[in-house]
Prior knowledge:
- By secondary structure, this protein is an all-alpha fold.
- It has eleven helices and no strands.
- Helix 8 (180-197) packs across helix 10.
Amino acid sequence: MSGKRSRSFKCAVHHRDREVCSENDFHLVLEEPPFFKKMVHVIAMEVLPEERDRKYYADRYSCCPPPFFIVLMTFIELAFFAYHTLNTGEAEPAGPVPTDSLFIYRPDKRHEVWRFIFYMVLHAGWFHLGFNLCIQLLFGLPLEMVHGSGRIACIYLAGVLAGSLGTSIFDPEVCLVGASGGVYALLAAHLANVMINYHQMRYGIFRLVTILIFASCDFGFAIYVRYADENPLSPSVSYVAHLTGALAGLTIGLLVLKNFEQKLHEQLLWWIALGVYSACTIFAIVFNVLNSSVMQSFKVENVYATETFYNDFQV
């Protein structure tokens, strides 16, 4: 032991031994902790399940390296929205949708594989953008500060990829924009954290129920807008991308998030999560590869048949 003691520790020991009656007797000047320290303490209480981990994190966290991934994605999405807004000259709550962009996911261009990921930088209106940015900053930034940028990037991008792959299978005739798959992956990662550690976390049951209610209401609203909206020309919400993104966040969260107690049933759950995500992703990729090939051959055959028809009838 080095013999060094913090001021709060000295004060507590001497107060217990009745050697001092107040901070002034001990000549201690207690300073209000800065805002950054308060924020780190709140994040530790909300994300970490064990009191020992909370104290260690609150004392040692120095924002080096900084949580750059969520901030970087936020600036990129804002920059793309500003670019398309300046090009079109309008910015509505629900549009316009940049359908001619090189990054939008379109079912007729699924052979351009970058669209399965980069559709996340586009948004259908400022309300869509604002909702996604608020959720990813509110839920993603605390997770990144605790678990690191690499783990959160895996969860976010896995949710984005799952959103486009799921939409290509279950809703194959729609275009897709927005980072909702990644945002719901972050929500589901919080859900995974709370589900496994809710006995040790403050208000664990309440937080679990709150996340489930929020996700259920948003999912139900997405289905209503898609099938019951009277204006079919307005962009609808992709409930499939939300659902598959959340499932990806739940499984990848179980795989990559740290600070879980390693028990036998959690090890089994880890392998189950790995198997489920791997099987679903491989199936979706194979489905899109085969479907893309079939669509390309169908287009070629259709063009050939049309040209033959025109030549036979000398049109």
